[in-house]
Amino acid sequence: MIIKKESDDYKKGFLLYIEIIKSLNLGKINNSNLRLEIQYESLTDWSQIHSFQFVKNWFLKKRKNPSIKVKNIPLNHCRNWEMKKGNYVHKSGEFFKVTALRVSETKSREVDEWDQPILTQVGYDGGILGLIRKRFFGVPHYLIEAKLEPGNYKFVQLSPTLQATFSNLRRAHRGRKPYFEEYFDLKRKKSRKVLYKQWLSEDGGRLNKKRNLGIIIEIPEKIKLKISKDFIWMSMWQIKESLKYNAWVNPHVRGLISNL
User: What is the reported pTM?
Assistant: First the structure.
């Protein structure tokens, strides 16, 4: 871990960047300070906590020794899942259903009609994709999780702070609540600033009418979060640099930061 002193260079450089961009008179573009700061912090690695080499080593170690075992089993061997009214459903009535569609009268695709299975989220709205932003010595950082998913390429990918379905948030699995979920429950009184909140579409070829609620918040620098070994603070430059590597960053992080 590396800790730098308060970065006056970052602050001075950002103010100069604002002056330069606004002096160009580029017309009707998004010149908000948030948009300009995202551009500026993406130019170089301003991290006050870890070098990118540290992040790489941390992530590759997670991938090398994932704490998960996955094997293929017949669909009808899934515990707590059953066929009901032609759909494959979870006995709790939560999570998702394996349903089927018959598609016809389409002229824009490779064939005019077809049948296919599709995953239908209970209630259609999938869950929350949340990203926490926090400053260290005045420089923005983002809380990223090295998240295990059974279908991930190499099991572990860099994921948002919170990535949970509403079924998970309701604890339909009878397990623990997802970490940091309280910061994205906007009905609770929490010190934070909502930078972005919008429903995001998902892949309609395999997910039926599903969408997720994307939320990016900034918490005050004085708040100290207790994070587990599966989370890490990354600069925006480090997140974007990770996109250059083979399937490191999951699609939800990509989607969230594209909106900043």
Answer: 0.91
Three-state helix/strand/coil letters over 100-149: EEEECCCCCCCCCCEEEEEEEECCCEEEEEEEEEEEECCEEEEEEEEEEC
Per-residue pLDDT of 180-191, as tens digits, reads 999 999 888 889
Short-list 96, 64, 98, 105, CA closest to 83: 98
144 contacts 136 by C-beta, under 8 angstroms: no
Topology of the domain comprising 8-68+125-257 = Nucleoside Triphosphate Pyrophosphohydrolase (3.90.79)
158-171 pLDDT tens trace: 999 999 988 888 77
Can you give the pLDDT at residue 173?
A: 63
Rounded distance, CA 134 to CA 233, Å? 9
The residues spanned by each domain of the chain are 8-68+125-257, 75-121
Place of tokens 């300070």: 33
